[in-house]
Amino acid sequence: MVERIVSRIALTPARIVDAALAMVDEGGLRALTMRALGARLGVEAMSLYHHVRNRDELLDLLVERILSEAAADDLPASGDWQAWLRRVASRYREILRAHPALAPEIAVRPARSPAAWRQLEAGAAILCEAGFSPARGFYILNTLGMFVMGHVLAETGGTLEPASETPRTGTHDEIFAFGLSAFLCGCAMMLAERPDHRQEPHACPT
Questions:
Q1: Residues 6+ apart with CB under 8 A from 190
Q2: Which of 69, 97, 193, 199 has its CA at a distance of 20 to 30 angstroms from the CA of residue 163?
Q3: At CB < 8 A and 24+ separation, what contacts does 13-22 make?
Q4: What local confidence, expressed as pLDDT, does residue 181 receive?
């Protein structure tokens, strides 16, 4: 009876991604198969292919969901790009920590969807307005993302089970705060030096 009620609810990409993310959170990536996902949604696996081409595209959508939650609709106040990057990095860390089994997949899967690229371009545009070249804006976002990802993988082990190892000095929170501050300080120094990249003939992303 429950399965019949579930199957009457119209399938949408968002609903499929919600269910897939819940499955990964509960059982890891190995638990995510199209057949198991269909059963969770109360439909045959073939019904899913009307909305996603295959499991690979589904994983792309999961990556897009995580990135969109990290980016959010958040703009820096009064051009304070450092505070904005700090918020984005901290939010990304918390989201990855909430979905540790998905973190290793995000680490090796590039953002390929148009929506994910739009989010990246929007972030680069904010940094461009702050004075960085478009290229350096993308470099900053990519490097920051890799820093956060590396920290979370070290912190969680990339599994559903909490990592048993703890830092010998400091806490994960303290190490993350130090690394993030050092990164932002380095970016600010590059901007203050006003190197040649400010004269590159590339327009800001729009």
A1: 132, 136
A2: 69
A3: 13/51, 13/52, 13/61, 15/41, 16/41, 16/48, 16/51, 16/52, 16/58, 16/61, 17/58, 17/61, 17/62, 17/65, 20/58, 20/61, 20/62, 21/62, 21/65, 21/99, 21/102
A4: 97
CB 119 within 8 A of CB 71: yes
**Distance (Å, whole) CA 21 – CA 2:** 21
Residue 30 vs residues 34, 39, 64, 88, 124: alpha-carbon distances, Å: 11, 15, 19, 29, 34
Across the chain, mean pLDDT equals 84
Of 149, 68, 158, 155, nearest to 111 (Cα)? 68
pLDDT band at 177 (very low <50, low <70, confident <90, very high): very high
CB 187 within 8 A of CB 131: no
pTM here is 0.81
Q: Residues 120, 177: contact at Cβ < 8 Å?
A: no
